[in-house]
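Q: What would this complex look like in 3D?
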Amino acid sequence: MTDMLTPVLTDMWDVEQGWKLAPYESKGGYAALDIAFGMSQDDVITAVKDSGLRGRGGAGFPTGMKWSFIPQDNPRPKYLVVNADESEPGTCKDIPLMMGNPHVLVEGVIISSYAIRANKAFIYIRGEVLHVIRRVQAAVEEAYAAGHLGKNIHGSGYDLDVVVHAGAGAYICGEETALLEGLEGRRGQPRLRPPFPAVAGLYASPTVINNVESIASVPAIVKNGAAWFASMGTEKSKGHGIFSLSGHVQNPGQYEAPLGITLRELLDLAGGIRHGHEIKFWTPGGSSTPLLTAEHLDIPLDFEGVGAVGSMLGTRALQIFDETVCVVRAVLRWTEFYKHESCGKCTPCREGTWWLVQALTRLENGQGTEADLDQLLDQCDNILGRSFCALGDGATSPISSSIEHFRDEYLAHLAHGGCPFDAARSTAWAGTEVSA
Amino acid sequence: MTTTPEKAVEKSDLVTVTIDGVQVSVPKDTLVIRAAEQIGVQIPRFCDHPLLAPAGACRQCLVDVPDAGNGRGFPKPQASCTLPVAEGMVVSTQESSPVADKAQRGVMELLLINHPLDCPVCDKGGECPLQNQAMSNGQGESRFSDDRNRGVKRTFPKPINLSPTVLLDRERCIVCQRCTRFADEIAGDPFIELLERGAQQQIGIAEDAPFLSYFSGNVIQICPVGALTSEQYRFRSRPFDLVSTAGVAEHDACGSAIRIDHRRGKVLRRQSGNDPAVNEEWITDKDRFAFAYAQSEDRLVYPQVRDEDGSLRPASWPEAFAVAARGLAAAKQAGGVGVLTGGRLTVEDAYAYSKFARVALGTNDIDFRARPLSAEEAAFLASSVALTGPGNGGVTYDDLESAAKVVLVGLEPEDEAGAVFLRLRKSVRAGGTEVISLAPYTTRGLAKVSARVVPTVPGEEAAGLDALAPELDAGSVLLVGERLATIPGALSAAAAVAASTGARLAWVPRRAGDRGAVEAGCLPNLLPGGRPTADAGARVDVAAAWGVDVLPETEGRDADAIVAALVTGELGGLVIAGVDPDDTSDPAATRAAIDAAGFVVAFDLRRTDVTDVADVVFPVAPTTDKAGTFVNWEGRVRPWEAALRNPASLPELRALSGIADELAHLGHGSPLGFRTVDEARAEMAQLGPWDGERPRLDTPSPGGSGYSTTLGDGDLVLATWKQSLDNGSLQDGDKYLKATARTPVVLVSRAVHDSHGPTITLTGDRGSMTLPAEIADDLVDGVVWVPSNSVGNGVLADLASPGTTVTIAGGAA
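A: Here is my prediction, written as structure tokens for the whole assembly.
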């Protein structure tokens, strides 16, 4: 069963002190640098293009194509920015990756920067995860000391400096242009596009912004070849990816597998739903992706497969909820998150999330009528696609998808005059009776 | 009036789009929201402002774009305020697209959920874009606050002060960012910023940094809701009770278009007008808030004559005319009468003084310059300034935008000409213009236009201009300020450099009436219409038009010479209009001259030191009470009609006409021939500009100025100018505005600061002045700067003449 796993990025995780340089190098780490430096920059871009690697941050934009958008006739410096501001509820892949294998990210940064002709790269890490920031900083220091970073890397004549930057605690800074604003020392709010970052990004210079996992996937592609990477996954969603399972599963955690694996297969790997319970709903890629139900257990988890059932692959953050969970309660908690994290720039997201929380709270308390459900859906319709960035869109996804799949449960709240569920039953300690 | 010609648009730069089924061609890069205006469709908007960079924040202007011009549509509604047109683009606005209409109604509903329903007590109610567009593009009923779903609105304690003048009611704010973008992009004073996030997001200031900007009031005007209000106007009136009259700002020579909002004969507020060729949509805070002076307690409202017991008593207008005429007739015989008109006259009134001096008093002893001056300046004004204007090659605001280089000499535009400063900043930000300034240090205003400062000791501007000449060409503009008057050779050097390099030259005075006074002939060497007094043909020209036999032939005395002649008794009388002695070259001498004068006729708006000692006092109509015209620094004619009807408030030309009539009865001179502004305008139009030879600007004789060439030990050259907000009498009556003025300090070099400490006493030949000291890092060695009129009676009265040396000492005197 474990042969379904394809440990590439996670391969170092069970190595003793695998986050250090020596163990990483002993397993072939930083060997891809010399291969890359032996290639022309454009050939590296082509290899990444040919591999079919698509952005692992959620949107799935082809990574090599993004790199090729950098106008090389632009006289300004080019920058690589790694988006490590992982904050989506349910998403937990970049943070363990940077903890378990920071050097693969650093190696990826070097090759990617070389390919786009950047001499400066930034790793923007979510500020709350101080332990991760320290670990990546340590890895960067080790890489400098070993000559993998700095001037004339490996005698190639190529120079690169890497800055590890700590965010200041805003979900919106995971949006790439808000991230750039934050990196420049400004208020983290998304920028107007165009100009796109590829043309005028960081400090108004051509900038590539990639997710941690996308960049970390590059060394293996260079080392093993595009065909090796493309042999994994499905036709349009190639390669390996980290699937993070959380919630009501026996063995929550990160499972690195080819894209296209199904949740049923992943659940088997994870030991199934917690004993005595059955799956009720799940998110394929974090709370911003419309939730799915037991009937979707066998859809291939790739960009196309999840899209076909009306959701998004997103960040492969599989949050599993069993039948003890009240969907209204879960959705309200997510909505409170979006209200808290709305940056305030645009009206639909700023005001909409304020209203959605109030509307959902009333429904959870069993107040209102079925007409309020339709009004809630109409509110979502007035936010989805009307906000400045995707945060507002994401805020509506759990609401509209939960009403689509669990309308009766909402109505049950109204009939019951409150939540018909016992919230304690969904907790991790449910069933463990405590006696005095 | 001169208008800017439509900027020619190349045919190939036009893009054709279809909006609501109507094809329209617009210049490329036009935003959809403005292309729609071309076909008469108003898309509702809040954050959009044509003079600010697009933000796309409010999302009110969403439209459907079924074809982006490439055959594919946008899947989601697009913000039309950020979307440039593309050839073949198809746009459906709320007029034709249910999707766009629903999107707009949805956004409007969301905007209103946290907006208080305090319209009945809100200043903006009645002129509020949110109110208006909620009516036009929103739903009548809220789904957030009906009885079934009583939502909880976000509230804030209210209001908070962003500055002494600007208040913020945060709960009314829809965070469109117009104000923060204005502060950052236009004024360059980014002291307001977004704070917090989500629904708690608000505009705010840093604890120790209020929104102190010379242009802060503009944010109140562009706020699309009632979030920003002024201390001055808040809760004073409702917009539908106000009558609005177009006007022209009287505080500087920019000619800014303003709107005067008044109710029952009282001005309640002033707003910026919209004149793309001049001030666009921005005015200074002085233009906006400083108008209470005209409604102050000490306003003169009736003529007065000096009684037998020596006191002033009220008089009827006819009596005052007669008394003035008798006194002036006597003074004329006792040596003559000088006329000092000050710099605040309308051009019609200035023309009346100019004609009055020539035909009634028979003299060329007339000068509008109530400030340090020189004969070189008068010659420069006659040769290089009079008659230039937008129609005949004069420098315009638009020229500032297209110039490759703008050189500022003796001019600090942020303080002295706000609209010029804003236009320069716009141009610099667009990347087209380099501002170069000959200045003693990098002022805040110069820093905001990224100016290249050529460090210049006051007095050395002429040499500085010569040194700069090699890099100037026809794409350059030279702006010279009135401070150059007393710097020997500076104005001549400017004219010579302009002539030799092809650079264009403009004189930017401080006062609104200065340029008009030049055109009207309120100078000893100029008759109206730029006609040189010394030119016999010009005199004949004017005499014929005026129906008099001859005009005085000899060039008259300038203001300083009039003062001197009064003191020695060579002149017997004085007509003085709105001149504060403390503004003049030598305040003590001017006061002595007024005391010495045998007979003084004073014209003023308010009681002053001068009216107190005058023999006849005439009240003056403020700009709100009469029609008038200012000529701005460009030479652009800026007329306005009276905003208020006040029968007791007469233009000066009416009073002068009355005095001239009485004088004619006494056998002195002839009547003016006009009694109203319209008649004066008609006569001026008939007279027209001088078409003969312009006087040459001769190289001035060296010397004769107070500028120091040798410095004693510890002596410093005094640099000074008036700040935008200071003790000027036209700013009286608004304590809030006054509180936003910059703290008066003396600027010194770091070395001087280190050796003398944080408090410094300067001593010059007229007195001493003690001020807190601040360091100006790049202040030229040997120079000290103080604001001209921010403490005491001002630098001229209390310290020394600009450019002379002062001694410096630490601590208070």
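A: To summarize the key features: Chain A is about 40% helix and 10% strand. The longest helix of chain A spans residues 390-416.
Q: Very helpful, thank you.
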